[in-house]
Specification:
With 185 residues, the chain is mainly alpha-helical. It has 2 domains: 65 residues, lambda repressor-like DNA-binding domains (434 Repressor (Amino-terminal Domain)), CATH 1.10.260.40; 79 residues, no CATH class. Helix content is 52%, strand content 4%. Strands 1-2 form a two-stranded antiparallel sheet. Helix 1 crosses helix 3, helix 2 crosses helix 3 and helix 4 packs antiparallel against helix 5. It is elongated, with a radius of gyration of 20 Å.
């Protein structure tokens, strides 16, 4: 949601954005989390600031990714709760090995792991074979899978039903980051 150097959104705006993204009304969220609709409204408008426990309860119910839970906590004036260790870190060696084993087990079907920005992290040989012959500009690190799929010189030419598949991809992007698809146009 936020990028380094960007001004953080207020906690209320983050809550409202996630609640709207999840398609949950204030009444539903307040009922399911045990807080009053009025208090939730105050939180969203910034008239009240969520306690640490309240922020975590709302984040849990809205199924926020851990990175976004940290962002909400910081916006509410609390310390982040969840650590982030890059997959490339030495301490993640066993995790990388396990993920690669899972991805390789899908052979001969293509399988891959991507980061939240759709950059390729791990892939099996079948997935890499799909990209044979792609222009160098699309294959430089980090390889962005969404760009590789949608770029005119990318994999789109190899997809017989590209219009239907691209609609699916754009819908997926819209669900993950509302506003991002409009930015592409």
């Amino acid at each position: 949601m936020s990028s380094e150097g960007a001004v953080a959104a207020p906690a209320g705006a983050l809550l409202r954005r996630w609640r709207t993204r999840r398609g949950v009304s204030q009444q539903e969220l307040s009922s399911e989390t045990g807080i009053s609709s009025r208090h939730l409204s105050f939180l969203e408008t910034g008239r009240a600031r969520p306690s640490r426990q309240m922020a975590l309860r709302l984040a849990e119910h809205l199924e926020l990714p851990l990175r976004d839970r940290n962002e909400l906590l910081v916006a509410a004036g609390h310390a982040p709760q969840y650590s982030h260790t890059p997959l490339a870190a030495e301490s993640m060696r066993d995790v990388r090995r396990s993920l690669q084993g899972l991805i390789d087990a899908h052979q001969p079907c293509p399988a891959m792991a991507v980061d939240p920005l759709w950059n390729l992290v791990l892939a099996n040989d079948s997935a890499l074979a799909l990209a044979d012959g792609m222009p160098d500009e699309l294959m430089t690190d980090p390889i962005n899978v969404m760009r590789l799929l949608l770029h005119p010189a990318g994999l789109r030419g190899r997809m017989p039903d590209f219009p239907a598949y691209s609609a699916h991809l754009l819908n997926r992007l819209q669900c993950l980051a509302p506003g991002s698809v409009e930015a592409l146009n």
